[in-house]
Amino acid sequence: MNGQKAVTPSAEGIAAAASAAKKGRGLPPVHLWKPPFCGDLDMRIARDGTWFYLGTPIGRFELVKLFSSILKKEDDKYFLVTPVEKVGITVDDAPFVAVDFEASGAGQDQVLTFNTHVGDAAIAGPDHPIRVERDAETGEPSPYVMIRAGLEALIDRKSFYRLVELGSHHDNWFGLWSSGEFFPIIPSKELENI
Q: Measuring CA to CA, how many Å separate 123 from each of 66, 104, 193?
């Protein structure tokens, strides 16, 4: 290897590279970065949005926010990407959790703005759709909203209950309007049986 030692990826190295690459207040341009794959990192995002490194929760919000800003999804895999390296991480469900939302307007003019546990915001609409998956056995809903570039947020339970209060029926579905788009949650006839 030309006398060079292979470097094992580490959270510290990724954080340092991400900090160096971040310019300004916006998100880093991870979509432009095409670094080589350097292996997997023992990092996991739990369903509740907690980030773990080497099995231990990452307690520093600023570090979690930094890592979340360099997250990228390719196919069904998640990576932390810097200009010089790309490492795989594990995501149990969705990488973000929508912990709150604001609603303005009503009916078809309603606009829903979601906020995540790491400070991202997304206005539900054509570019940020809401979708609901239901457990095949229990029927339990798992609602999601697209945050950015294929990265979704699981909508937390308290927010989902509030959203249901804003729902309406359209084309035989019960769902939500936002930015002129209707997002179905459950067939209207099934809702009558609950």
A: 22, 11, 31
More confident residue, 18 or 85: 85
Greatest pairwise CA separation for the chain in angstroms: 70
For tokens 């570090």, the residue is 63
CB 149: neighbour CB atoms within 10 A? 11
* Residue 176, SS3 per DSSP: strand
pTM > 0.90: no
Residue 14, token pair as written in the block? 């990724």
Q: Please name which of 151, 126, 148, 144 lies closest in space to residue 185, comparing C-alpha atoms.
A: 144
Quick one: pLDDT at residue 3?
A: 42
The Cα–Cα gap between 161 and 189 comes to 19
Taking the C-alpha atoms of residue 176 and residue 39, their distance in angstroms, rounded to an integer, is: 41
Enter the tokens of residue 116. 């995540």
- How many alpha carbons lie under 13 Å from residue 188 in its C-beta half-sphere? 9
Gap between the Cα atoms of 114 and 101, Å rounded: 4
